[in-house]
Amino acid sequence: MHSGERPEPEPFEIRVSRRVIEDLRARLRRTRYAQLGAREEPGTVGESEWGRGTSPQYLRDLIGYWRDAYSWDAAAAKLNMYPQFVAQVGGGGLHFVHALGGGDRKLPLLLLHGWPDSFYRFHKVIPILTHPAVSRFGANDAFDVVVPSLPGFAFTGAIPSSGEPVNRQSARMLWQLMTEVLGYRRFLVAGGDGGSVIAQILAIEHPESVMGIHLTDIGWHATQVDPNTVTRAERKYLEDAKKRFMSDGAYALVQMSQPRSLAAALNDSPAGLASWIVDRFHAWTDPDVADGITPDDLLTNIMIYWVTQTIGSSMYSYCAEAQRPSLTPRDRVEVPVAVALFPKDGSGHVPRSFAERTLRVVRWTEMSQGGHFAALEVPERYAQDVIEFCRPFRAALAPSPRSNHVDPSV
């Protein structure tokens, strides 16, 4: 931290009052399940049952498990195993995990989630990235890992508007967190969904600080390219993306246009909140990953939204970005970029040439398994790609006065 510029971050522990938990259980006991059109009879959960949104039977089963068996106390205890803090940055309190790695050649790594997940997206990869020798990677592959709750989400919550595009405001706050509060002069960033856009903004606005970025998607702004300039493969990708949006993009249209109307319902009904979030997880995850996202994973992520009452503020970026985009196809990232594509992500097969319009791609990996929430679904494969992308930066790492800093000449 630069002297006099920022206060030290305050230690933070997740604590939720019994009153909140008891109120939740009462609401779950009183759940009124909706019917759509003709009466729907419970049956075996199958793909067809998800055709009009969340499967009614799956939702009933999940609500029953949430009400009778799921333990928030156990989940919170696991989350509290990681060191957490709140820093006063950009007019608000920014919540983040700061887990220090082992070894002398560790690199600072900022991990950025999106919607409708949370900082919980990365809880399975934090131990791999901080102490890789415990897994199957080398002891010298360690990172200092910083995982924030993005502005609007979870224990950060809503942040006063600065008047700039919302994701640019978030990027500025995260740059201040990394450089002014935590003292990392240079660092790496990895992100997906909204985190991909913020990672790109950080790289564009602060190339002196951001050594490279690792992305699991290229961001929605890239699809706004002039169709007259694309190749045949790129045109097919754009046409497919448009078809996917027309068939599965209603959630985004609502959140871009009427987020207040939706937020009122989701903030009041745990079953409604679960239905809205689980629908996206079902659409964007790989069902063939045996040890992927569990019901406990789903419910812990949902619980984070419920206990913080941030579903409304988390959706705000959709509306704000529609009115005033943070990035356009004219913006280009010039620092090294790794793109790791997971087959069930939901964004389709992106041609590398299309990604290279806005990104300086130095690593391109097409995975065989996994989806939108890869760090939760296939954590070791995700961590491996991040580790391998970062090894050239580690090789150039020079000693610095503090072991958790990267020399600015790197």
Q: What is the fold-level CATH name, i.e. the topology?
A: Rossmann fold
List low-confidence stretches. 400-410
Q: Strand portion, in percent?
A: 5-15%
Q: Would you identify the CATH architecture?
A: 3-Layer(aba) Sandwich
Mean pLDDT: 91
What is the gist of this entry?
With 410 residues, the protein is α/β, with parallel strands linked by helices. The protein is built from 15 helices and nine strands.
Layout of helices and strands, plus pairs?
Blueprint lengths: L9 E3 L5 H12 L26 H13 L3 H8 L4 E6 L2 E8 L7 E6 L13 H5 L12 E6 L17 H16 L5 E5 L2 H12 L4 E6 L16 H17 L1 H8 L1 H10 L1 H15 L10 H14 L2 H13 L9 E9 L10 H4 L3 E8 L7 H4 L1 H17 L15
Parallel strand pairs: 4-5, 4-6, 6-7, 7-8, 8-9
Antiparallel strand pairs: 1-2, 2-3, 3-5
What does this structure look like?
This protein has 410 residues and is of the alpha/beta class. The protein has a single domain (7-24, 53-399), classed as Rossmann fold. It is built from 15 helices and 9 strands. It has helices at residues 18-29, 56-68, 72-79, 126-130, 166-181, 194-205, 232-248, 250-257, 259-268, 270-284, 295-308, 311-323, 352-355, 374-377, 379-395; strands spanning 10-12, 84-89, 92-99, 107-112, 143-148, 187-191, 210-215, 333-341, 359-366. α8 packs across α12.
Keywords summarizing the entry:
single chain; 14% strand; 41% helix; Rossmann fold; disordered C terminus; 15 helices; 9 strands; alpha/beta; 9-stranded mixed sheet; 410 residues
